[in-house]
Amino acid sequence: MNLLAELRRRNVIRMAGLYLVGAWLLVQVADTVLPAFAVPEWVLRAVILVMAIGFVPALVFAWVFELTPQGIKRDADVDPAQSIGPQTARRMERVTLALLALAVLYFSVDKFVLSPSLSSMPSDEQAFAPQAAAAATAAPRDKSIAVLPFENLSEDKANGYFADGVQDQILTGLAKIGALKVISRTSTQRYASRPDNLSQIARELGVAHILEGSVQRAGNRVRINVQLIDAASDSHLWADTYDRTLDDIFAVESEVAQKIAQSLAATLTQGELIALEQKPTENPQAYAAYLKARVLAAQVAGSRSHLDETLAAYREAVQLDPGFALAWAELARIALLAGWTGVDPTGALKQEAQQAMATATTLAPNAPQVEMTRAIDLYYDKRDFAGAYAVINTVKSALPGDVEVWAYSGFLARRLGLWEAAVADFKQAHAIAPNDPDMPYHLGVTLGGIGDCRGAITEFDASIALQPDNPSAFSVKLLCLWKLGDLSQIDRVLSQTSEDLPIYSALRGIQAFYHRDYSGASRLLRDAIASDQGTQSDMSFSGYIPAAIDWRLQLGVIEQRAGHAEAAQASFVEVRAAATDALARTTNSRYVEIAWRAALGLSLAGLGEAESAATEGRRAAAMLPESEDRLESVTWQYYLAQIYAMNGNAADCVPLLAHLLNTPAAFLGVAQLQFDPTWDLVRNDPAFKALISQAQTTTERAP
What is the pTM of this model? Predict the structure, then answer.
């Protein structure tokens, strides 16, 4: 008997056919059903692997054993006259045919019924169906996407807010999906709606896919076109057009986010699916106002009029729908931010924020956006950094692609002294927002805070490259360079910038002061003060009060060193008057009060009122102990050390300087102590000399 005949007799060939058809059908059904139950992707891979491994054992089983009326027996033990092999063969054929019929039925239903994205494509998009099928097997490393600004095709160009808002909400939905890497809106807004250089943009943003879209609104009708593009090949993976009413706009945004996840083979958890399908409001006009408010809130303006416009849009949203929890939460966030930055002197916005947050919490106590607002309230208003940090970390899993979550986590980690955690948070935020200059800036500040000035300078340069007119990054970069002590390098850096903003004149003036060119320093600082229009800088009293106050104090010291007593006194008197006036008014920010008290103390020291100066300086430092804020407490200690130095009080100044040299976030180096004329009145003190000698030895031994 030849081998083929024996394989047929033992039903091995039929077993192979039955196994392959059954395994294929099982895998196809599993591929469809498992994602609906949020089953991890590895389960499907395990099913495929088991099916593949089981094929050969199934054939061996068919060869060795035979089914008989008495059960399964070895083939060699079955009498050929009693064998029911032919009947078994017919049964296996019938089962195989039935499975084939089911497979054909499944294929038909899947192709013509369960693929709405293909059936709903406009006719000119049908050619993209093969790429859409290929996208279903996208590798995990390809699950990255940037959503470019949506084109506004409405006749009424005022609907530009609406187009931007739709883009923002689709991006917000995608950011809830942990399996996707989603670039933040702050990094995509610089690009055009339909650019020609998609592959270059994808490389800049570090993504494999780009979503383009357009929005056309006419009254209550909205048409949204979207297309998902593989950036490397410039091929369309999926496209669709939605003609809906305003009432149904949120459903479109949710559906687009889910279809993108499906196209990129990103498995949604049950929680993510529920979050995407939760409708924030049933009122379309309230939703339109909310979209406008979101767009305004994302714009960097900094003026009170812009703040008022943003708040007005949120207020309109909650007036139209008092049950709109997300609008209440974001209204509270914007109002809280106003209080932190010192533009709410009466506390009216703080009160509104508390009421808005209470309403949001009542409406949606477990919503991650509401929890985010609670964390910001703990941060900005309560100054409970540990409590805010704990809340933020619970929000990360619900909003993994939200750059603000990671940025705020970094802000809070720094204030708690968790510097390495802050570095990790800002790196993640920078990955989500690669074109946002604030992310490398804050990463640089954090690296500088832990003494890695070289790494910090690299990040500041990255921030400046993204935003050349970036005085904050430039200023703190100079702080790092001054700490390292290479004045000639700083001269080169300053000579390479052509910016003519007042702050750059002030920085050149400070550099001239360090070179002891008092006339040049005086001229440059006077130019900065004369042309200033309310500059605030992180390197001047942490940005809480006008930078010109710091410049006037610097000018006073410069004039003293130059021997111009009357000019010095005039500068100090002007700062004393400004600080006294500011402290006489009610302030809603403890940090603003601390800054003014430090400024007052420095002005009094310049005027020779040593005891009063030290009292104000100590009071400012005591208002924010290190145990409460590891980031900014050292700033006020540094100003206190300057007051002691201006008073010629080495006994109190030197121990404080020794502490600051070993404290993160001080941005103080031994080289700077040597060339900065601020310390001249204590420079010859034996304790100061010993501090310099000891610090130099420690620096030389450092790796």
Answer: 0.72
> Which secondary-structure segment (H or E) carries 209?
strand 209-218
**Domain limits for position 129:** 123-279
The answer for residues whose C-beta is within 8 angstroms of residue 8's C-beta and 6 or more apart is none
Dihedral angle over CA of 531, 535, 537, 543, nearest 10 = 140
The C-alpha atoms of residue 480 and residue 448 are separated, in whole angstroms, by 7
Please, how many CA atoms are within 13 Å of residue 92, restricted to the half-sphere of its CB?
23
User: What are the tens digits of pLDDT across the range 116-162?
Assistant: 433 333 333 333 333 333 333 333 347 889 898 888 888 776 667 78
Q: Work out the burial of residue 288: count CB atoms within 10 Å of its CB; fewer than 13 is exposed, 13-18 middle, 19 or more buried.
A: buried
Identify whether residues 587 and 693 lie together within a single domain: yes
- Of 413, 117, 415, 407, nearest to 263 by C-alpha is 117
Kindly state whether residue 529 falls inside one of the protein's structural domains: no
Amino acid identity, position 329 = A
Amino acid 683: pLDDT: 96
What's the CA gap between 654 and 557, in Å, rounded? 19
- CA-atom Rg of the chain in angstroms: 34
Q: Mind listing the pLDDT tens digit for each residue in 281-317? A: 889 889 889 888 888 887 755 567 888 899 999 999 9
Three-state DSSP state, 198 = helix
**C-alpha span between 579 and 583 (Å, rounded):** 6
Amino acid identity at 297: A
The last residue of one of the domains, among 78, 96, 114, is 114
Same domain assignment for residues 100 and 180: no
Instruction: State the pLDDT at residue 121.
Output: 35
Beta-bridge partners for 336: none
**Could you tell me if 250 and 379 lie in one domain?**
no
Which helix (H) or strand (E) is 224 found in, with range? strand 221-230
Phi/psi class of residue 215: alpha, beta or left (left: φ > 0; alpha: ψ in -120 to 50)? beta
Of 84, 114, 144, the domain-final residue: 114
- Residues in the chain where the model's pLDDT stays below 50: 38, 113-141, 700-703
Which residues are within 8 A (CB) of 458 and not within 5 positions of it... i.e. 6 or more apart? Answer: 444
